[in-house]
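Posting for a labmate who doesn't have an account.
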Amino acid sequence: MTSCADPGGSVGAFLCQAGQVLRAAGIEAPRQEARMLLAHVLACREEDLLRDPRAPVATQAGADFTALLRRRVAREPMAHLVGHVGFWTLDLAVSPDTLIPRADSEAIVEAALDGFADGGRVLDLGTGTGALLLAVLAERPGAWGVGVDCVPAAARLAARNAAANGLASRAAFLAADWDSAIAGRFDLVLSNPPYIASAEIPALMPEVARYEPALALDGGADGLDAYRRAIGRLPALLAPGGRAVLELGAGQRAAVESIAAGAGLVAISARTDLGGIDRALVLALRG
């Protein structure tokens, strides 16, 4: 990479050139992402880079950084490049086998914690990285839970995340058909199901459409297939007084409430994400 202002091979030169390359590729926060990538390669903090911009970057580190930069220009998600992402109070490993946890999904955690007594039993359908289940368990030290995912690699990743965050003793993960593999009743059921209509997936941002697993995105022709499956199971999974909290796609609240009503469930509340979109729907058994 050539220099922008600093001598070639320096931290500042790498950051300056990378910022330009990322901006040209349409990345929204090019300077921040350049710092994230270089800090990852150099195993340091971002503020360390700013402290000494003329520090030299070793040849191998520069090559590694350039390789990652090319992948980001191709719109591979940043989380895949650095291997982890922050969610709630947790640091979670990610992989192409799972959706990358997003801040919008923290609305599900907030809704789940509201009124959920410590010591309860939690089920997470389609657990992915384990983000929802582990976030709830981190806030309720007497609770325990089970996460189910149909992708074995996802279940293994979730188990590693539980161990890395000190929650392995209270979380178990199964690779199974998540809407029929579990018997028993739970005080809280969580799910972030696939809810994108099949025809809409190619138009999603490239980081999602190209790199995140189709199984975790594709909700069928109307985006509601997974809700029909999951909600149909809820009467057999919820303990008396139990609640389910489902993530919603934009504009799906009324349709999901209708599906729930047909299964003998009632929507008792909803919570919006930071963008004001109805994101978390809380359901309970009717009567």
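Reply:
Got it, the structure tokens are right above this. The CA atoms of residues 129 and 157 lie 6 Å apart.
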